[in-house]
Amino acid sequence: MTYTKDDLRAALSAKTPKQSGDAIAAPQFLDFSVTAPSAVTGAGSRQWIVRGQNFVLIHTQPASGDTIFSAELTSEQVVLLIDENSAIRGTGSGEQHTVTGPALVVVPPGSSEIVSTGAGPIVQLIQSDEAEWAKRAANADRYAEPHPRVAPLEPWPEPVRGYRWRTYLMADVPEDPKRFGRLFRTRAFMVGFFKPGNGPRDPHRLSPHTHDDFEQCSLVVAGTYIHHIQTPWGPDATSWRPEDHARVGSPSVAIIPPPTVHTSQAIGSGVNHLIDIFSGPRHDFSAQPGWVLNADEYPAPGN
Question: Which has the closest alpha carbon to 32: 266, 201, 217, 219?
């Protein structure tokens, strides 16, 4: 891994990559700014549905007052309210909850309904073993067979004091230079809800790195980025792939497979905002004291 000295991730222990003869999956660049939505509700909300190996992501550009989700799930889902214009009224378990973003909301298993009470974007994260949702993904064919280099999801321990609606407001998270961004986890997800940045990223301070056995989902919610991805060469030259330097707008999703070398570079002149999503939670980030903001509610295995 290649980080600048002041990047907190430089302190993470480097792993020796596992040797595998399995094919390396190709990166996926799903740019919702140039593709038609997967669904449009009667009220006009537009929804893009995509997936990774262990998760389904629903990105909604809502019409205010529209019911954007009403279903029963066997597992928790995570709802991201991207900015101050994102707002919901959620019902489930006999309760009603109102939240205005930016925020991360955890919805317990069971029946729930989400109504958008604002016009800002809303993102939902659902486990891919919710089969009815996984098959709706625009890229479902890419997972007709599981990718062998991606570890299957093994949910982490149940939350302390059981399942319930949980809301984490980004306004409640103070700046802390000793902590890597704003990290939250559930049993199935880890989300890096980073703060928006202004202007391009310094090209002299990029951070190319790899992951051994999990995908990274990089969700661009504002601005323009280039995802730089290099697929390692193996002995079979017919499977070699040229480097990707994919320019994407917002909103968009990049699915970055292991063990590719990757880094994302903001290039927009205005606000650029990227959110990182992992399923399951990352052990290396979780091992860093104070990094995961809700670790007291979602224990790590063995704790």
Answer: 219
Report phi then psi at 134, rounded to 5. -60, -35
161 has pLDDT over 70? yes
Containing structural domain, residue 82 = 8-286
Q: What is the C-alpha to C-alpha distance for residues 200 and 209, in angstroms, rounded to an integer? A: 20
Cβ 50 vs Cβ 137: under 8 Å: yes
The DSSP result for 193-250, as a single string, is EPPPEESPPPTTS---B--SS--EEEEEEES-EEEEEEPPP-S-GGG--PPEEEEE-S
Query: 87, 115 in Cβ contact below 8 A?
Result: no
Domain tally, the chain:
1
Give the separation between CA 296 and CA 257, rounded to whole angstroms: 30
The pLDDT score that the predictor gives to residue 244 is 98
Beta pairing class for 225-230 and 122-127? unpaired
pLDDT of the residue at 108: 97
CATH of the domain at 154: 2.60.120.10
Please state, in angstroms and as integers, the Cα–Cα distance from residue 244 to each residue in 235, 262, 263, 286, following that order. Answer: 20, 9, 11, 30
Q: Is 298 within the bounds of a domain?
A: no
Paired tokens of 8: 């907190």
Q: What is the DSSP secondary structure assignment for residue 65, as one 8-state letter?
A: T
Mean pLDDT computed over every residue of the chain: 94
Q: What is the C-alpha separation between 90 and 44, in angstroms, rounded?
A: 19
295 is a domain residue: no
Angstrom distance (rounded) from CA 3 to CA 300 = 26
In a domain, 101, yes or no: yes
Give the list of residues 6+ apart from residue 25 with CB closer than 8 angstroms, or none: 142, 147, 149, 150, 257
Give the strand order in the sheet containing 225-230.
Answer: 244-248, 225-230, 261-266
